[in-house]
Amino acid sequence: MKARPVKDLDPEGPLADQAERIIRVRLGELVAFTPRALDPSEVQALHDMRIAAKRLRYLLEIFGDLFGPYAAHGRKRAKDLQDLIGEIHDCDVMLPRIQEIVSDLERDDAVAVVRAAAPDAEDLDPALLAAAPHAEAWRGLHTLLTHLAARRVLLFERFLLLWTELGREGFVARLEFALGERAGDAGATDV
């Protein structure tokens, strides 16, 4: 995912003002992935949302002290989001890799079973499958596939809960407000 350009940056202007502009754009990027990322089949949108959360988090780690107290909490919440989506992404990466390995082993075993059958056999005896070279590996890999698929469902449900929780706590609005504050302002309040 390519980051959106940040317009009207002034290298001579106050650091907090420039950081605020950048962080607002990155926060907008994060939010822009909804509602697509809330669909479990939209793997790329979710991955891009993770990248957006990471960019936001890193900016808040670097510049968060320039802003109101919620900026530190916003950084933590962006990290929570990034970490959880990262675990989902791990499943999304591993599932097709393991499926490819299973397909390769099944193809190899099919050839081996055919070769083990008598050349003049009318059909294959299902008992030959027990002697397939990778029969035990299939079971383990299929178990792993099921585990990863179930883990992805669980993690995605947690992601939906986290995103709902962020909405309820006013994550975006509170972070936008904190960006308008400056550290040390007399009116700044605790989270």
Describe this structure in words.
This protein has 191 residues and is mostly helical. It is built from five helices and no strands. Helix 2 (43-63) packs antiparallel against helix 3. The protein has one domain (15-180): Alpha solenoid (CHAD domain), CATH 1.40.20.10. The two termini are 32 Å apart.
How is this structure best summarized?
With 191 residues, this protein is mostly helical.
State the helicity in percent bands: 55-70%
Low-confidence stretches: none
Which whole number gives the mean pLDDT?
A: 90
What's the CATH topology name? CHAD domain
Radius of gyration: 25 Å
N→C terminal distance? 32 Å
What structural class do helix, strand and pairing data support? mainly alpha
Task: Give the count of structural domains.
Answer: 1
